[in-house]
Amino acid sequence: MPQYAATGATNPDLSYQPMSNNLPPSILRRIFEQASTEEIIKCAQTCRHWAIPALKIIWQHLKFIRTRDFDRTFAIIARKNTIFPYGTFVKSIEIIHAERELAISSQMMLLVVSLCHDLEAISLNFSNVRAGPKMEQSSTPPKKALPPPQMIQHRVPTKTVTTADTHTQPLPLAHIGHNCPSIHTLRLDSYVPKNDDSIYEMAKYLNHGTLRNVRFTGCTTLQGSTLRKLAKTNPQMRHIEILGNTPITDSTTVTLAEECRLNLQHLVIGNAYHLTDKAFLNLAHYCSNLQHLSLYNTNSDAESLSENGLIHIVKKCSSLSVLNISNARWLGEAFFEEVLIRVKQQLQDVEEPNSKLPASYGLHQICLGNVRREILRSPTLQKLIELSSYLDDSETSDDDEYSTAFEAPGQVPFMSNETLPPNARKMNVVRGSSIWWYRRQPRVSQATN
């Protein structure tokens, strides 16, 4: 909970006007962002001119793991006699459910969306629906004193209880669409009600045109019809992650591609077992700006999948930079030949003396699992390894532009951003039946204007 919130309204120092009160709030906020939390709190207690930009930094992100912190914070926000509208300063909220500490309820959600109208990002985590089992007490006292509870947890890890064992309470998520017109990031973790009516109602009313990033993790009751409705009401989505056992079919993927089209840049599917070439061909046709594609638990059946779909994605998605496939047994040498052609051309474009392309341009990360043995020994893959960072670690460093190329610009709260591992250049490209390939750094420095 922000430490200054309870005292800011009655601080006598607010009448003091410093000499720098002519600085605009935007400049003051940029200055305060470089300071520590304690320093920002002191700046907020100086005067009203400094208080507003300082309070916006203090209140912009709230994370709750205990009920008492939530109650204290929203008791301050709900006050009507405060000097500052604290609710308007809140931009992102993360709430973690744990029955012994904090239980997310319908009343809690209504309080959040009704008092924080400028909310931009919200994350609800139900990964621990129930607390761990209690330790059984013996009728006879032990000979030695038991260690503290935290030490017992480290020595004897308890079984993690997932939402598959029980259903979570349905929440009035439709109020997010009604009361939060600026929402752009939404994350639901292990939200498993008996049906997905609440998510469908939210998708129906969440049509402000601001939603850009969604992540559903472990939402096993989530239906494809709900995802299709969300895509139709929010065609501007750029970042979509559907992780866990939620089945994604061709019809859902095709709708995402047809509705989001050029806006879609980041797509991660955790259960891609039902996808066929139809889904990949539509992604290649409609989503030419796709930059990141990760597919897990894919089907290796040659009758439903072929390398033709991914070849079209490599050809037509010119912005593709990251490609991850957990089960790539259905990929043949033609796919790697197309990748080799693209990597060579893009490296040539970047290494041109007068090229203005950044070093991070092009395909620079491929992670494939369960690759066939004949592919691992093919000459095409050996040529691709020659263009990897595994053979180029002497010319690179952890501080160069290429090392940070994997970080998504404008990092989104609550969303995962895969970065280049610091030891990637020291690892073999082929490990077992998996391929972990990272493109080498361009050898020609970029021309500066």
TrEMBL record:
Pfam families: F-box-like. This is F-box domain-containing protein. GO terms for cellular component: SCF ubiquitin ligase complex. CDD domains: F-box_SF. It comes from Umbelopsis vinacea. GO terms for biological process: SCF-dependent proteasomal ubiquitin-dependent protein catabolic process. Residues 17-62 form the F-box domain. InterPro entries: F-box-like_dom_sf, F-box_dom, Leu-rich_rpt_Cys-con_subtyp, LRR_dom_sf. SUPFAM superfamilies: F-box domain, RNI-like.
